[in-house]
Amino acid sequence: MRTQITRRTRLLGGAALGAVAALAFVGTASAQDVPQEEVTQVEEVIVTGIRASVEASIAAKANNTSIVEVISAEDIGKLPDVSIAESLARLPGVTSQRLDGRSQLISIRGLGPDFTTALLNGRELVTTGDNRGVEFDQFPSELLGSVVVYKTPDATLIGQGLAGTVDLRTVRPLDYGRQTVALNYRHEWNELGALNSGTTDSGDRYTVSYIDQFMDDTVGLALGYAHMSSPYQSERFNAWGYPTYSDGNLLTGGVKPYVMSSELERDGYMGVLEWRPNDRFHTTLDAFYSEFDNTQVLRGIEFPLAWGGSSGACPGTPDVCRPGPSLRPGYVVDDGLIVAGTWDNIKGVVRNDLNKRESTLTAIGWNTEFFANDDWTLGLDLNYSEVERHDIILETNAGTGRNIDGALDTLGFELTDDGVTRFTSQLDYADPSLIVITSPQGWGGDVIPGGQVGYMNTPTVTDEIKAVRLTATRAIHESPFKSLSFGFNHSERQKAFINDQFYLGVPGGGDLVVPSELLLAPTDLGYLGISQVLSYDALGLVNSGALDLVRNPNADVIAGNWEVTEKVSTTYAMANIDHTLFGLPLTGNVGVQVVHTEQSSEGFSARQVAPGVSETVAVSGGDEYTEILPSSNFILEVREDTFVRFALARTLARPRMDDMRASRNYSFNVANNIPSAQPDLNSPWSASSGNPELQPYIADVVDLSLEKYFADRRGYVSLAGFYKHLESFVYTHNQIVDFTGYPTGGVVPVINSGLSSSPDNGEGGWIKGVEFAVSTPLDIFHPALEGFGVIFSASATDSEIQPDPTQDPTPLPGLSETVVNGTFYYENNGFQARVSNRYRSDFLGEVAGFGNGRTLRSVAAENVVDAQIGYEFQSGPLEGLSILAQANNLTDEPFKTFENGDERRTIDYQSYGRTFSVGINYRY
What we know:
Distance between the termini: 58 Å
Strand content: over 45%
Structural class: mainly beta
Helix content: under 10%
Radius of gyration: 30 Å
């Protein structure tokens, strides 16, 4: 066990307490009676729609004691974007990474998704992904009332993230205060059309929400249901990489282009029941349930080029040898890169693939407050959330023949300005008499004789959190503090990853002609220069029993199974400030959390003994530690509606859960099992693994912000700066580990230690940034501009992370040095219009790599433009009815990754097209 009380922790805590003591003395000495202003009666003006959302967000930001950003629904059931992540990405200092054209994961202040915690109504959530990063498209935006992004924590914020904390909030019916029924419907389509046979290019979204109060407004009820069937398309190019040719120039090693057609179906259910029979008792039960089904159909062709290689008894005749790809003389070179030419001896692999994800998320919370007297408030909160996720990642291969058999192609190629390679071919890849189910390259021949005809990965993820929280607040009178808050929270989380993978083979070997009942219309790859490829129902082929499924017995698959358990106990105390400093109003808080964590993991260590044969041993490990996390927030109102905010905090983020796995893929080299073997030089043992003893990331954070609110708080301007000192950072390197008890095939090891490439806690670094934001109605400049408004933000962020002092600093995943967001809107007399742009510069992003594993790649800068227009009937028989039209990705901005800092060396290029939707909303 480790209790972390560093010098910096003591300094942070001492600084916060010292500041409080000083302000108490100075504030008391300078406090004056403030004359009461005469109350002026003003006519109430009710604003709805976009302006109401903006004003509600500004009010929530101004009133919070932490530095926050807030999104409020335009009206119940009408958040403005397709997903919550897209709305979040417009906030100052927040960015999103698109996945298949949709914003799904977010980064706050340059730190990636694993450093951000997501809460639902203040409670930590399970995640559908493999790790801690929340995939926000799981949550229907229509069922949320607001979202608060905490950039600075306070001691009462449980589950706070190192980068920030995102709290998704459902509506509270008693606070809402009126009966409402809201109905929404939208129809959407993509301009690319259905790129794959058997798929659709249009879908629908509809929502029903009901809010009401009963029994003299002592009981409140909110119910909501949201359905989404959303298709999306993409044209994709993927390059294997860029090796060096014999003349010293770079060329393409191979390509794997696809067209993808997907359909995301989601059903979300929300319910809130409140009871407040009197002023002393208040209890709330809320529940959220979501079913998420995402199906992607991918069809294309894979061309092994420079990395293709030969097969068989080569050199030799065609019946015994398939020669490797050959680049003809006369190719074109541009600045060290071969950009055009002709390849001979190409054996293409026609791909008909499918990715399918089914997941369910359940979250239930029960909160009770009891006001014991005028000074004491007690609270109890219970919550439970769970996720079950099942994936199918299916690849099937077809071609002209198995391995050395079948016709070869001649390909002309040319690299476009986008870094995409276009081809001209000689073969008809859509001919079912030429293209058959087979193993064109002989891949997987160590398990399936002659090679596999496909592969199926079917992982399962489960995640569960159980938590209980006790709270107490004591009001204080005639003191710099208005109240003291205390609490204790205990949570238990268990996440498991089950790794099932299968080779696909043709029964009895040989090739398989695609059954006619599974054949579909050919898929057009015109964007690539290839006219068409053979298309068929890949999942139907597997389910028909036409192929054998052979479980992958290899050690890396067995070692891919893991389970991680965390038990976290958090005790906190916080003093809430309401005072004056030099006669100026001062509010805020100062507090501390003591966080005790017990973590453990179970899994398997396995080694490959022979092709298809492995040895396995069950393993486990874990650790426990205690961290002390002081925090403080000070808000000084230096002039009317002008605030200076200052915050100090120590924060943590627990490591990625797959990094904490106990599982290990190891090997034992008998040739090194000699008396002179040393663990760090020539040990017979070696491995790659997780590390169940990993400690958390730790950061000390300082924030300073100046905020000015104007136009009756309809607008604001802010300038903020922050600095995060990362005390530690997790990185992977070789470590000496103990292999005692691991199977060796009967050989007695001379030593039991060796090197394992595993994650470890290294040194840290820093992140710093500046954020500017302004939101203003334009009628403050001239009455003719009533209804017009602008929201603009820009941030500049820099970092230096050096976990290993012997190596160069590493880029921080998720960090874009420059982020700019802008929205121009108009709303008046029922008309609404909005156009938004979000820009982020290059960054290091996490994408799916080989075997659906995690890969970090450089992602090119992008500008994404969206627009919306609508009209709401404000009187007459259609009052409450509104119509709208939306367009997303107006400029068809691609998603692009590249290697070695050279954007010509494209790895992924994905074009998503524009998505349009029209809809109606009705409420009464």
